[in-house]
Design goal:
Layout (H helix, E strand, L loop, with lengths): L1 H13 L4 E5 L15 E6 L2 H14 L4 E6 L12 E7 L8 H11 E11 L6 H10 L3 H4 L16 E9 L5 E8 L4 H10 L1
Parallel strand pairs: 1-2, 1-4, 2-3, 4-5
Antiparallel strand pairs: 5-7, 6-7
The structure holds S-adenosylmethionine (SAM).
S-adenosylmethionine (SAM) binds next to helix 1.
Length: about 200
């Protein structure tokens, strides 16, 4: 079920080209799908996960993966405006302080760049919405917070929704693309001051 989201996200990114930061890369399940002409950096909090990802990179000789680094998504150790695309798959509903993570994602993204997300978001209608509310206390068993609302990731003022689609099966996961406003970041502030 989660692989459909990964494949959809990477397919989209392959059409963009350039540099990619994958936040919460885990064991690197997405890495082999990236086109060889991309420059992919992966970060994760867990050194154990990263070691598994590195083994995949070595085994499959994934030259598009330029770095795997241990890092907290809440305090990304990269300069402002440095990646063409930031991807995060099945991460936002498990990280602490997802709003802070979104703000960091936007900071490191170039103006006009895309944030590509796949995640489960709580449904608001229907029988499955009821089931998600009931199952919310069992996040540790089902692997994600079933009551995680999409508004949590849409609060970052520098990002605008470009695409939002539910994925099969049953629309459990959502594919979401946000773009960073051209006037955001330091250049945007300077422009605003001049005006
Ligand atoms: C459900 S896994 C998803 C992994 C991968 N994206 C995938 O699709 O298989 C969530 C990942 O987020 C990472 N993570 C959780 N909190 C984090 C944080 N604060 N900073 C960076 N990574 C974090 C976990 O270590 C884990 O690898």
């Amino acid at each position: 079920m989660t692989n459909i989201g990964r494949r959809r996200a990477v397919e989209y990114i392959n059409g963009l080209g350039g540099s990619v930061l994958e936040v919460g890369v885990g064991t690197g399940l997405s890495l082999q799908y990236y086109n060889p002409d991309l420059q992919v950096t992966g970060i994760d909090f867990s050194a154990e996960m990263l070691a598994k990802a590195q083994r995949k990179v070595d085994f499959h000789q994934l030259d598009q993966v330029v770095a795997l680094r241990q890092m907290d998504a809440r305090t990304l150790d990269f300069p402002d405006n440095c990646f063409d695309t930031v991807a995060t798959m099945h991460v936002l509903s498990v990280v602490p302080e997802p709003e802070r993570v979104m703000s960091e994602i936007s900071r490191v993204l170039k103006p006009g760049g895309k944030v590509v997300i796949t995640n489960h978001f709580m449904r608001t209608k229907g029988i499955l919405a009821l089931f998600e509310r009931i199952s919310a206390p069992f996040a540790n068993i089902i692997g994600w917070h079933s009551d995680f609302v999409i508004e949590t990731v849409l609060q970052e003022p520098t990002l605008t929704v470009e695409e939002q689609k539910t994925l099969p099966p049953l629309g459990m996961m959502t594919f979401l693309v946000l773009s960073k406003n051209l006037t955001s970041g330091r250049l945007g502030i300077a422009a605003a001051v001049v005006r």
